[in-house]
Amino acid sequence: xxxxxxxxxxxxxxxxxxxxxxxxxxxxxxxxxxxxxxxxxxxxxxxxxxxxxxxxxxxxxxxxxxxxxxxxxxx
Length: 75
Fold this sequence. Notes:
Radius of gyration: 26 Å
Shape: elongated
Order of helices and strands: EHHEEH
CATH class of the domain at 1-40: Alpha Beta
Distance between the termini: 63 Å
CATH architecture of the domain at 1-40: 3-Layer(aba) Sandwich
Mean pLDDT: 88
């Protein structure tokens, strides 16, 4: 369903009820679509501890300096 900005302002409660029932609302300004009104979907992914257990981080390169970067700092 496409509604203009003025109608969206004055009928927001009604439009939200329609969205809650599964309808997607497109809001237009001067005849051009500018926004959509759609149901909120929470992104609640359960975080699990220990997910990286056994993963080994390679830090051997950490202490070596890149010669180009060192040269820039020495100028």
